[in-house]
């Protein structure tokens, strides 16, 4: 049995090394459909594994022209990597219209008539077909689940906002918890990459607690984490039990006390009384109200906190 397992392991390793050495897929020659690859779950957005979505590729010159036209007319909405751009266009790598298009007939209809916030474009038929050919060439090499196509990483510029407007928005919505001279002091040095900076503050991970309390260092030993969701359970007897929230639903609430003891309480409607304190609650509420412009403005302001 040991010999059989060893042989099987060697075979798996050999297959893995061979697959890794092959590198990313390349488009097949013009006029040929991309090969069917992968099994269940692997055929994502390029139609791999779905013969009905295997499309012959156009001449390289047509694809090159389509890429130029896409950059001019489509990139701002659908993104440099086809996964959506600054103007909120849909992800073309997951679009059933793009996946099922053969020679621009489906894409062309939307281009000519528009859809939703997309205005119609007056493009010649051959230009529409060239754009469709370019999209089809990307779909032929795209990986599963809407991943970007193989190639160099596309760097997105998120510093496009107004720092002054961002400062005003921060003062109105964020200053009760954060301070540019307190917990956010030097924030732009801790997050040199603007994309990381934006992700950090949107998720609530860029600061360190109340602005008036100073810095963003670690909490003292034994003290609760600033990101920790806390809960207080008030029993019918008046006893209050407090700790870190572990789980809560309509039937039970579980918490961990300061000494590490885990306790659970059965819930029956509003009894016992449950009070939850989530330090990221304000960030979660902002997700529902701020616009892309607000987000970019705040990012531009935070990038000045060096």
Summarize the structure.
The chain has 306 residues and is of the alpha+beta class.
Describe the structure using short key phrases.
alpha+beta; 3 domains; 36% helix
Folded structure, characterized:
This protein has 306 residues and is of the alpha+beta class. The chain folds into three domains: 29-34 and 42-139, Cytochrome Bc1 Complex, Chain D, domain 2 (Orthogonal Bundle); 163-211 and 283-302; 230-278, SH3 type barrels. 36% of the residues lie in helices and 9% in strands. The protein is built from eleven helices and five strands. The protein has helices at residues 2-22, 60-73, 75-78, 96-100, 105-113, 125-139, 163-173, 187-190, 194-203, 281-286, 292-302; strands at 230-234, 240-248, 252-256, 262-266, 273-277. Helix 7 (163-173) packs across helix 11 and helix 9 (194-203) packs across helix 11. The longest helix has 21 residues, at 2-22. It is elongated. The chain starts with a helix and ends with a helix. Mean pLDDT is 76; it is low at 1-26, 35-49 and 208-225.
């Amino acid at each position: 049995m040991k010999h059989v397992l060893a042989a099987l392991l060697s075979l798996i390793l050999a297959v893995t090394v061979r697959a890794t050495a092959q590198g990313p897929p390349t488009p097949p020659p013009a006029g040929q459909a991309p090969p069917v690859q992968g099994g269940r779950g692997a055929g994502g957005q390029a139609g791999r594994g779905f013969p009905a979505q295997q499309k012959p590729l156009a001449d390289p010159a047509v694809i090159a022209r389509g890429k130029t036209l896409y950059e001019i007319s489509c990139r701002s909405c659908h993104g440099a990597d086809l996964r959506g751009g600054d103007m909120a266009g849909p992800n073309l790598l997951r679009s059933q219209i793009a996946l099922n298009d053969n020679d621009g007939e489906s894409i062309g209809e939307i281009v000519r008539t528009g859809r939703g916030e997309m205005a119609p474009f007056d493009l010649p038929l051959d230009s529409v077909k060239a754009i469709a050919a370019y999209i089809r060439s990307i779909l032929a090499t795209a990986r599963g689940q809407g991943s970007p196509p193989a190639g160099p990483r596309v760097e997105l510029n998120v510093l496009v906002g107004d720092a002054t407007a961002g400062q005003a928005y921060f003062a109105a919505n964020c200053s009760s918890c954060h301070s540019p001279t307190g917990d956010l002091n030097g924030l732009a040095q801790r997050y040199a990459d603007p994309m990381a900076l934006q992700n950090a503050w949107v998720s609530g991970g860029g600061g360190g607690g109340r602005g008036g309390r100073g810095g963003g260092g670690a909490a003292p030993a034994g003290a609760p984490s600033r990101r920790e969701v806390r809960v207080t359970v008030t029993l019918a007897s008046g006893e209050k039990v407090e700790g870190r929230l572990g789980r809560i639903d309509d039937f039970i609430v579980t918490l961990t006390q300061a000494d590490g003891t885990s306790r659970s309480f059965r819930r029956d409607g509003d009894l016992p009384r449950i009070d939850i304190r989530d330090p990221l609650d304000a960030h979660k509420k902002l997700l529902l109200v701020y616009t892309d412009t607000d987000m970019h403005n705040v990012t531009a302001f935070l990038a000045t906190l060096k």
